[in-house]
Amino acid sequence: MLLRNSAALVVDNGDRGTITAVEPKSRWLTVGLDAGRQVRLPDWYLDAGWIDYGYALTAHRLQSTTVDRTFALATDDLYQQAGYSIATRARHETHFYLAAQDDLADREHAHGPPQPPEDAIGRFARHLGLSRAQSLASDEPARARGRILSTAELHDEHDRVRQELNAFPARQARTLETLGDEADRQREELSDVGLRIGQTNHRIDALGFFKRHGTEGEDLRRQAEQLESQHAYAERQHVETVEAIAAHRADNDPVAWVDHHAEQIRYLRALEDELSARDRNAERQLVVAAQIDPPDHITAVLGPRPEISMAATARSQAGRIERLSQPPQHDLSIGRDTGLSIDL
After folding, report:
1. In this structure, is residue 343 part of a structural domain?
2. String of b and e for 39-69 (b: at least 16 CB within 10 Å)?
């Protein structure tokens, strides 16, 4: 993997390839880039450390890259956005590899009820639930408006704003998306047919005089005419698709609608984030409450909780702390008649 842009070498940071030749005396490295061309890297590029192994990439480096299959190590640094980036890079399959984690005896634990042991899959799911998304400064006013509302007011405000945004031209958006995909496919077809026309004409020009005017030349000219006809038809289809896109945009442009309602959309997203945060907090409180005072459906299966008064336990612990905080009083007499004593 190349790690630095270079206009002189025509390479970019993030380019990947395979080493095809090494020249120790001149200290050049020839790399066949995945883009399909060869590049020679001189000693000053290598000495600067701007090339590294490319058999494994970080989630950050993998962005904007598409591969057939992804094999990812789910470390403790994994989080929601990185997991999504990894899982959407592959065309066919994504494999996450989980590692068991030893629970060391001297590991620090938070105070409170003991937590159940967490297996690799549970830890993986928890990491994917952790978001490190950062909000834009432009989103903060909307978030502040949502934070000051009570939960009931938050639900009412969410329903009100969502109702106002129901006028989004969803049908036009779906149609435009379909037409856009069709236009992309047609452009690819035009490019492919144009390339085949150029290759056919080159083959005709490469023929000798007699072959060019013989059967082989006739077949190639017939093939070129068919390709020209196919290209003209594809071009007409592409023009019609572009005109259809323009007509649908003129009717009710979804992009213009989003621009016009940007503030409401930002406010709705802030309300949804605040509701989600409060729901997660409520779930955590329910879990803690269930550990302290198990509900009936849990005790019906597991039996009643051991009869240990939490208040008595707290008083016992407080008394133990108080006793430990007081220095012990031990009198050590030195000699029989000196009258000297030392308190330890």
Report:
1. no
2. bebeeebeeeebbeebeebebeebeeeeeee
Q: Give me 68's structure tokens.
A: 């057939």
DSSP 8-state class, residue 203:
H
Whether residue 13 contacts residue 5, with contact meaning beta carbons closer than 8 Å, is answered with yes
Cross-strand partners of 343: 331
* Residue 162 token pair: 């969502």
Q: Flag whether the pTM goes above 0.70.
A: no
Q: Two tokens at 242? A: 């572009």
Q: Is the dihedral of CA 279, 284, 288, 290 positive or negative?
A: positive
For 256-306, how does the pLDDT look when each residue is reduced to its tens digit (9 = 90+)? 888 888 899 999 999 998 998 899 888 878 877 776 777 777 778 877 766
Classify 64 in phi/psi space as left (phi over 0), alpha (psi -120 to 50) or beta: left
Neighbours of 82 (CB within 10 A): 22
Beta strands in 56-136 (DSSP E): 67-73, 90-97
The values of phi and psi at residue 324, to 5°, are -70, -30
254 inside domain: yes
CA 236 to the chain's CA centroid: 40
Residue 2 near residue 51, CB atoms below 8 Å: yes
Torsions phi, psi of 93, nearest 5?
A: -140, 150
Closest C-alpha among 53, 34, 40 to residue 6: 40
Torsion of CA 103, 108, 110, 114, to 10 degrees: 40
Q: Cα 247 vs. chain centroid, distance in angstroms?
A: 36
Structural domain harbouring 43: 1-55
pLDDT tens digits, 121-168: 888 888 888 888 777 777 788 888 888 999 999 999 999 999 988 888
Q: Is residue 178 part of a domain?
A: yes
How many domains are there within the chain? 3
Burial label, 261 (beta-carbon count in 10 A; 0-12, 13-18, 19+): middle
* 3-state SS, residue 247: helix
